[in-house]
Amino acid sequence: MLARLLLALTLSCTVGPLLFVSTADAADELAPWDAAEQVRRSMFTAQGSLLRGDADEAETEVTGAAQFYDEHLAATIADRAPHAADHIAAAFADAHESVADGDGPGLALARAWIWGGMLEAGTLVAISSAGSR
Fold it and tell me: How confident is the model over 51-108, as pLDDT tens digits?
């Protein structure tokens, strides 16, 4: 049991987001790990923009990250890890609110919840896949 827990923790921190199963043709769709990284990068850019006092750019980045998440990851996460999907949706709402309020720490927390939610979803997929073998 401890070995499975350690495996799950390792996967969640390193390759969890890589384990989403895509049902679309691989040539036509962005790989889930690339999509998750794009969301993470956009949220990081939003944080930097807000810290520099550019709330408009921060909002553009948060909106772009949310749309990208919706287009490339939301359906899979909602299907395979609905609890994580709920956390991510709430965190995107918090991110928008934090940008509107000029709240850098609030945006950082929302950014962490978004990334953590994607890791949680990847972990659940990994555990599910390991259990079916």
Answer: 999 999 999 999 999 999 999 999 989 998 999 999 999 999 999 999 999 999 999 9
Note the pTM of the prediction, 2 decimals. 0.77
Burial (0-12, 13-18, 19+ Cβ within 10 Å), 21? exposed
Contact present, 130 and 123 (Cβ < 8 Å): no
> Residue 15's closest CA among 37, 45, 38?
37
At 14, list the tokens.
């390193």
Q: Match 């996460």 to its residue by tokens.
A: 77
d(CA 65, CA 32): 14
- Distance set, CA 79 to CA 20, 73, 125 (Å): 11, 10, 10
